Amino acid sequence: QVQLQESGPRLLKPSQTLSLTCDVSGVSLISYYWTWIRQSPGRGLEWIGHVSHSGTKAYHPSLQSRVSISMDTSKNQFSLSLTSVTAADTATYFCARDPGSSYYAYYWFDPWGPGIPVSVSS
Amino acid sequence: QSVLSQPPSVSGTPGQRITISCSGSKSNIGDNNAHWYQQVSGMAPKLLIHSYYQRPSGVPDRFSGSKSGTSASLIISGLQSADEAEYYCAVWDDTLKTVVFGGGTKLTVL
């Protein structure tokens, strides 16, 4: 059974860097695409981006200048880094698997982690 | 305002059949596969339907999906109280170069 679990700080100040980790169990990271999605009352669900073992990365155009997603296959985990955060980045952050093939993502997500609420406030 | 339009709410009685619509455009639903998620309050979204009508294992066949032009629909038959949740459609958008989600539809079982 594939399971994902997010971890990281839940409170940040404006201009800091958000760093989250997703621990994956039940499957190796060397397959599929690994995705970050966030949800807030004002913006709804928002796809942040993904990474694959082959090195493919893609990010939401509006976040591209601030976001980076990487993976550590030795720990079977992948990570999200979002720089220069503002109150607009306050959201619950989810990690999820995209069961895409070696050549392309499917852009549907299953399963999801339980999510981690992150608040940005001075 | 979401690129994909969903009704904010729908309601039904136990045993009834309801439909949730998701209206988009050629660059998303028209040319790509749409997917549906169920989110119970306080929980993470759960995949319900992918690629318009494919059900993951474990999802009851009371849930089905369809597509017509630039719109997708989620159909729930034999409504149960356990179906009370928020439902979201999602699809890749070729113009925006991102996955777009609908604003969500809250289902109430009366």
Structure, described:
The complex is a heterodimer of chains A (122) and B (110). Chain A has 122 residues and is mainly β. Chain A has no helices and 10 strands. Chain B is mainly β and 110 residues long. Chain B is 5% helix and 45% strand. In chain B, the strands form 2 sheets. In chain B, strands 1, 3, 4, 7, 8 and 9 form a 6-stranded mixed beta sheet that branches. A 3-stranded antiparallel beta sheet of chain B has the order 2-6-5, with no helix packed on it. The relative contact order of chain B is 0.33. The mean pLDDT of chain B is 96. Chains A and B meet through strand 5 of A and strand 7 and strand 8 of B.
Concise structural overview:
The complex is a heterodimer of chains A (122) and B (110). With 122 residues, chain A is mainly beta.
Topology of helices and strands:
The complex is a heterodimer of chains A (122) and B (110).
Chain A: E1 3-7, E2 11-12, E3 18-25, E4 33-40, E5 44-52, E6 57-59, E7 67-72, E8 77-82, E9 91-98, E10 116-120
Parallel strand pairs in A: 2-10
Antiparallel strand pairs in A: 1-3, 3-8, 4-5, 4-9, 5-6, 7-8, 9-10
Chain B: E1 9-12, E2 18-23, H1 26-30, E3 34-39, E4 46-49, E5 63-68, E6 71-76, E7 85-93, E8 98-101, E9 105-109
Parallel strand pairs in B: 1-9
Antiparallel strand pairs in B: 2-6, 3-4, 3-7, 5-6, 7-8, 7-9
List keywords for this structure.
heterodimer; A: mainly beta; 6-stranded mixed β-sheet; 0% helix; B: 110 residues; mainly beta; 3-stranded antiparallel β-sheet
- How many strands in all of chain A? 10
What is the N-to-C succession of helices and strands of chain A?
EEEEEEEEEE
Our Rg estimate of chain B from Cα atoms comes to 13 Å
Bulk shape of chain A? globular
Strand content of chain B: over 45%
Helix content of chain B: under 10%
Rg calc of chain A: 14 Å
Largest sheet of chain A: 6 strands, mixed
The pLDDT mean of chain A sits at 96
The shape of chain B, in one word, is: globular
Number of helices of chain A: 0
